[in-house]
Amino acid sequence: MTATPFVTDASARLPGADIWFALPAGFSPLPTREFMSSGNDGRTPDGEAVLSSLLAASGNSTERQRLAAMLAPVRRMMHVLVETGVIQCSVGLHTDDEGDGRLLLSLFTLAWRRLPWAPRSIMAARMAASAENAVNMELLELPCGPGSLVETHTVAPGSGLGERLLQVSAYVPYPDGERLAILNLATPAVERAEHYRALLREIAFLVSFDTPFSPESDKE
């Protein structure tokens, strides 16, 4: 069996980095500012150009047209999430193997939230209990410590059609007990909630607050 390859982002080795995690295949980093831009300033590509570039290598014009049509709900997801202090974002494109084979689109984001000190297990439980409109929640015992997972369904702002968005959030308290990392997956594919819960749970299990790199590897 061949080991799964990992691509290390340059930010993982920056001085002061305090959280590490891994994303599965199908996720690509999204330049948040460029994506949110209207593209009317003549300098910054608009969201459609950014998203289309992700499939440039496929050469499939039909898929690119479908992705362009999906751009509006993606931007609405971003507007919902950017208010939470997002510091990193990736777009996910995966084939719906259990449906008609269409592309499922999702957004992964990472944000930090500072809170009054509390034991980490209590902090994680409080975050789960305080979630509004939660349809599923669970406590997690992760390699890096306690956490919680919450699934909510929201109406996309500005959709005008009552379009629902699935959000799955993992709350992972930092060891100092004064802040926590919020890992979020958002997608319009509400019918695939179980799969996205499992996906974010796997990502949360890979979270580490200790650098995985040895001093020797940094010299390479």
Automatic annotation (TrEMBL):
It comes from the Bacteria. This is GAF domain-containing protein. The lineage of its organism: Bacteria, Bacillati, Actinomycetota, Actinomycetes, Kitasatosporales.
